[in-house]
Structure formats: structure tokens, C-alpha cells
Write a structure and sequence with these properties.
Length: about 525
């Protein structure tokens, strides 16, 4: 992840606060986003509790915790009963629930403080606080967005012809999520209730919703690395809320909901190669192209100010990723154990692959290089973690380390874009590597069930399915991200001006600085 150390401070004069018209413009834009969500997303009636109709996180097309394969022709339905029978809801398993509560905390830790420190350590001193603020603010913004509409749009069954593309609004404002709580005790819920893929789960829906929220939080936070040092905080806030609803939630539905069209097509994405990493990487690339290069890029010294912070952040990401990948089994079981093992192996292999590639080509192995390689390995193994064995994870890790090193150095230099902290170079490219290699190395018994005793194995046909998922994710994320950015650009503006950028975002945007 390439950033650079600042030259001596060049403090320009502080700009006056936004004029009243600008402030009103920002307020109106924010109200329009929220108003549109409320208008479009309001369910016909909130009088009846909505039934759980969610799909597994990252185990498409298998249900989390059980490995049950949905029927390929599962028909989309609207909100369905929440229990496997009319009288007996699934029972909660305390071990599975405890593991999922732990995994949820681990994944939240990946954003705050993990990603926040990782990115903050790679920017210049004058932008450290602003970079930390981005991750923290996104955590708050997406929490509310997810509660209001994001979860419902992503993980309910949907209705009619739109069911393969969007969920319904039976969980608008999380309506009905507590309908089964009695005397403080909850029950399990059914994924894809009312479809051929319905599968009872052993954790409360509240835990599942919260776990998925942490994925929804970190995905837009990853995008910030691409436009570090130059985007307005107000523009970032509006973009991230709109992007979460219009890009993240639909793609999560396609891949992870039983009624999603990519799920029914057989796409394998255990924990978010397409939904999280390719999605964020593409959006980041579009952001850095629309905003343009940083002032002084290619001329000034923009090396990381504090790599120690970046190492701490990368280490927190590594540990938290066990909740990301092993938690996507939605249970304390053998599949979770294998996902944890291959995550560790691939991460180490990628870190070494990047380190040796850099050592050979540049003469020295760098700290920045090895932690970047580790993140590349974590990214690449994410879609494969519930489908491959240790030997395959070693290959995936080495491939990710070397290919992401190439994309973050040579490719970026040749094409001339300023992806500040290599969001595209690591998350986009690494996600594509992992998604495609999942189709090559998938081990059938890991996803086998009574209904599908052979599971899903690597093959040319599966590789083509994975390639289709990659392609549509790239196109949707790029198209909608571009439209959102252009709308924001003509309303409240995207980028701070030259003098503000040179002074630093800490002072200009937040009135604070490090000493």
C-alpha cells in the first residue's frame, strides 16, 4: 500500500466555513437520501411482525452452520413463516451462539480500531485524524443504515420479479425481529423461510443481523483507502450511506440470499470475496479516478508517517479475520475450524510471497510490503475459506501476494491512477484472485449435504460461474458508484480545494491536529 511521508508543513490560510448555501445543500442532500429510503423502503404495513427470511452470510449457496445446499430452482417468495413448522421453531445452540457473538465482536474490531489504524499509519501526519475519523464515522453511519433498511434489502426473500435482485422490506427498522422473544428467551430462525432452500438455524436472528452488520460496516470503510487525503468529509458521509443501500445490499442479496440470482446460479463466496472485497475495490478505483490525483502525487514525498500504527492495524485485521471467515460457518463446527486453518495459512503465504517479490525486484523487503501482503492473503482466502483445503490455501496465498504486489506497484504506475492506499490493488485484485481460484480448488465434501452428497468441487464449469459473479459485481459497483459520485459532485462537491489539501484534512475538516 503506497503512501508517502509529507514534506515540511505547508500551512496555508484556513478557509472560512462553508457558506450557508453549501450547508443547506448538504442538509438537503442528506434529507433526500434518507427520504428516498423511507419512501421507497416503507413496507405496506408494519402492523404484522415480519418473518425471518434471511440468507446465510458468506455461505452461499450453502446455509450457514449446516452446509445445506439450496435447491437450484428455489422459487422467490415474499415474507414467509419464520419456523420450520407451524408449531415448533428451531432451538438455539448455546455453543453456536457464543461463537457467533465472539465472531461479531472480532469483525467489528477489524474496522474499529483495525482498519482505522492500518489506514492512519499509511497517510501523512496532517491527515491521520481525518483518516481515523472516516472509519469511526462510517461505523456509526452504516449501523443506522443497516438497522433502517440495509439488512432487510439484503437478507429477506424479496417479492415477485424483483426477488432475485432485492430483498423485501419486512425487516424495515428491524420490524418483527423480536417477535419470538418470550420471557427474555429467543429461538432460532429459518434462512430462506418459505423457499426450497429454507434451513433452520441455531442462533437468534438478532445475532445474525448484528454479524451481518459488521460486514456492511467494513466494506465501505475499505473504500476510503482509495481517496485518502482529498475527499470532503460531508461528501464521504452521503456517498457511503447511499452506496451501502444501492450497491452493498443488492450484491449481498444476489450472492448470499437463497432467492438471489447468483446464489441460485451456484456462486461460491463463503465470506465476501465478491460482496465485500471486489465490491469495495471497484468502488475505490472509481473514486480515485473521479476525484483525481493528490496534489503533488509523483513529485512530493508521501511516504507513511507512522508504519507502527499500520502494523498494529494489520495485526488486528489478521486476528479479526478469523471471525470474518470462520464465523461465516454460523456455528462452532468443523467447517469453521477448516476456515480458520486455511485463513492462517493463506495469510502467511501471501505475506511471504509479497515480501520475496519485493526483495527480488527492489533489493529490500519492507515492513509496508509484508503487512500489505498479509492483507492480500486475507482478502483472497475470504471467498474460498469454507470450500478449500490447506494445500489449496497455500497456493491461493502465494498467488495473491505476488499478483497484488504487481498490481499495487507496476500496474498502478503504468496506468497512472492514484489509489492512495491500494484499495483496488489489494482488495479488488485480491478478491478477484480468490473468487476465481475458489472455482478451481473447491473441495466437494466441505459443502456436501444429504441432498447433495458430492458437494461443489472445482471445475471449469464452476470457474465460469465464479467469473460471471466477478464480472457482474465489477459492472454494478462501478456503474452505481460513478453515478453517485457525479451527483454528489454537482450538489455539495467531492473534493477539498488545493490549499485545504496542502494544509491537511485534520485541521481543515475537523479543527484538530497531532503534535
Amino acid at each position: 500500500m503506497t503512501g508517502f511521508r509529507p514534506p515540511h508543513s505547508r500551512a496555508g490560510s484556513r478557509k472560512a466555513p462553508f457558506p450557508l448555501v453549501r450547508r443547506l445543500g448538504f442538509g438537503v442532500a442528506g434529507l433526500l437520501v434518507l427520504g428516498t429510503v423511507a419512501l421507497v423502503a416503507a413496507p405496506p404495513s408494519m402492523a404484522q411482525p415480519a418473518a425471518p427470511t434471511t440468507a446465510p452470510a458468506g455461505v452461499a449457496p450453502t446455509t450457514q452452520g449446516s452446509g445445506v445446499q439450496p435447491a437450484p430452482n428455489a422459487s422467490p417468495t415474499s415474507t414467509a413463516p419464520a419456523t420450520p413448522t407451524a408449531t415448533e421453531p428451531p432451538k438455539i445452540d448455546s455453543g453456536d451462539t457464543a461463537w457467533m457473538l465472539t465472531s461479531t465482536a472480532l469483525v467489528l474490531m477489524m474496522t474499529i480500531p483495525g482498519l482505522a489504524l492500518f489506514y492512519a499509519g499509511m497517510v501523512r501526519k496532517k491527515n491521520i485524524l481525518a483518516t481515523l475519523m472516516q472509519s469511526f464515522a462510517i461505523c456509526c453511519l452504516i449501523t443506522i443504515t443497516w438497522m433502517v433498511a440495509g439488512y432487510s434489502l439484503a437478507f429477506t426473500n424479496g417479492t415477485g420479479d424483483t426477488a432475485p435482485y432485492f430483498g423485501d422490506l419486512s425487516r424495515f427498522f428491524l420490524d418483527g425481529i423480536a417477535s419470538h422473544i418470550t420471557k427474555g428467551a429467543d429461538v432460532g430462525f429459518v434462512l430462506g423461510a418459505g423457499t426450497d432452500a429454507a434451513s433452520p438455524q441455531t442462533i437468534p436472528e438478532s445475532v445474525y443481523m448484528m454479524y451481518q452488520m459488521t460486514f456492511a460496516i467494513i466494506t465501505p470503510a475499505l473504500i476510503c483507502g482509495a481517496f485518502a487525503d482529498r475527499m470532503k468529509f460531508s461528501a464521504m458521509c452521503v456517498f457511503m450511506v447511499a452506496w451501502s443501500l444501492l450497491v452493498y445490499s443488492p450484491i449481498a442479496h444476489w450472492v448470499w440470499a437463497p432467492t438471489g440470482w447468483l446464489s441460485k446460479a451456484g456462486t461460491l463466496d463463503f465470506a465476501g470475496g465478491t460482496v465485500v472485497h471486489i465490491n469495495a475495490g471497484v468502488a475505490g478505483l472509481v473514486c480515485c479516478l473521479v476525484l483525481g490525483k493528490r496534489v503533488g502525487y509523483g513529485q512530493d514525498n508521501m511516504a507513511p508517517h507512522n508504519l507502527a500504527l499500520a502494523v498494529i492495524g494489520a495485526s488486528l485485521l489478521w486476528v479479526g479475520w478469523f471471525g470474518f471467515n470462520a464465523g461465516s460457518a454460523v456455528g462452532a463446527n468443523g467447517r469453521a475450524g477448516m476456515a480458520m486453518a486455511v485463513t492462517q495459512i493463506a495469510t502467511a503465504a501471501a505475506a511471504l510471497g509479497w515480501m520475496f517479490a519485493e526483495w527480488i525486484t527492489k533489493g529490500k523487503p519492507s515492513v509496508l510490503g509484508i503487512i500489505s501482503g498479509a492483507v492480500a492473503g486475507l482478502v483472497a482466502i475470504t471467498p474460498a475459506s469454507g470450500f478449500v483445503l490447506p494445500g489449496a490455501s497455500l497456493i491461493i496465498g502465494v498467488a495473491a501476494g505476488v499478483i497484488c504486489f504487481w498490481s499495487a506497484t507496476w500496474l498502478k504506475h503504468v496506468l497512472g491512477y492514484d489509489d492512495s492506499l491500494d484499495t483496488w490493488g489489494v482488495h479488488g485484485v485480491g478478491g478477484i484472485v480468490g473468487a476465481l481460484l475458489t472455482g478451481v480448488f473447491a473441495y466437494g465434501p466441505l459443502s456436501a449435504t444429504d441432498a447433495s452428497p458430492d458437494g461443489t468441487s472445482g471445475s471449469l464449469a464452476q470457474l465460469l460461474i465464479q467469473a460471471e459473479a466477478v464480472a457482474v459485481t465489477v459492472v454494478w459497483s462501478a456503474l452505481v458508484s460513478f453515478v453517485l459520485l457525479m451527483l454528489i459532485k454537482v450538489t455539495i462537491g467531492l473534493r477539498v480545494d488545493r490549499d485545504q489539501e496542502m494544509e491537511g484534512l485534520d485541521l481543515v475538516l475537523h479543527g484538530e491536529q497531532l503534535f
